[in-house]
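hey so u asked for the seq, here:
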Amino acid sequence: MWITPWANAPSIDRLDIDALWERGIRGLLLDLDNTLVPNHPLHPEYGTVPVAVRAWLDAAQTKGIRLVCVTNNKKLAYCQKAEALLGFPLIPAGKKPWGQGLMQGLRQLDLSFKEVAVIGDRPTTDGLGGHWLRCPVLLVASLSYPYEPKLYHVLRAMEYWIVKPALYPQLVKYDC
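ran it, structure tokens below
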């Protein structure tokens, strides 16, 4: 199975919100760990939403894009803290890629799958889940990548064998 993402970006804050809006995206299903919040204790912004990511989320909401976070994380206290930090709904134990949590998020957004994009750092969970929902997929690099063990780097590289080149590389801003 191949995933053809709309875009691959070094971070979520490099995705062009106006370009997403122009392509009809009105809602986003967002991954939590390493997409919105660094999940490695050595990361200087561990346990917080980095400033650039927060600014991007605020700009997306100001534009009128609805946001729901879907995470595979099962730790209830962690997820409640993250939801309060984000300021929009979070679905814990989302069982990505099989879609249970993603379907719940899609229902919460109250939009068609054509109007919703899935954004995450993992092709095998976020990418496949979005693909199976028939939503556009946008893949971003892990916020914790420089701090992760080398084995994770190998595993992430292996995941990308199912990813084809992006359809719309112009959705990524490199002049930030």
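The chain has a mean pLDDT of 91. Residues 7-169 form a domain with the Rossmann fold fold (CATH 3.40.50.1000).
lmk if thats what u needed
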